Amino acid sequence: MYPQDFKYTHDHEWIQIADDKGRIGITDYAQNQLGDIVYLELPEVGKKVKKGDVLGTVESVKAVSEIFSPVSGEVVEVNKPLTEKPEAVNGDAHGSWMIVLKLTDPKEADGLLNATQYAELTK
Fold this sequence. Notes:
Blueprint: E1 7-8, E2 13-18, E3 21-26, H1 28-34, E4 37-41, E5 48-49, E6 54-60, E7 64-68, E8 73-78, H2 80-84, H3 88-91, E9 99-103, H4 115-121
Antiparallel strand pairs: 1-2, 2-3, 3-9, 4-6, 5-8, 6-7, 8-9
């Protein structure tokens, strides 16, 4: 159910790392808990974050939830089309990336959960 090449946080974000960059989104479990997503607030390109910092917010019909950075880095890209059609996250949470970070320290991702561990967490 969860892509094997992603890493996961206890806060229900995923990150897919390639070289020194990571694409970030929320998990299928998170979008399920939130319900219909109606608004995304994403950071500006150039913003520097530390692991655990707030990157943005996801607003649904049920709640507003923060997106926490799984690793430290600098925002190099945001998925602007997704902000215009945030409900796409409900249809494909693992295919709907929100933010790309240039990683400060790729080894930080070693402490994140793998797909099996995340599946256990969300049982």
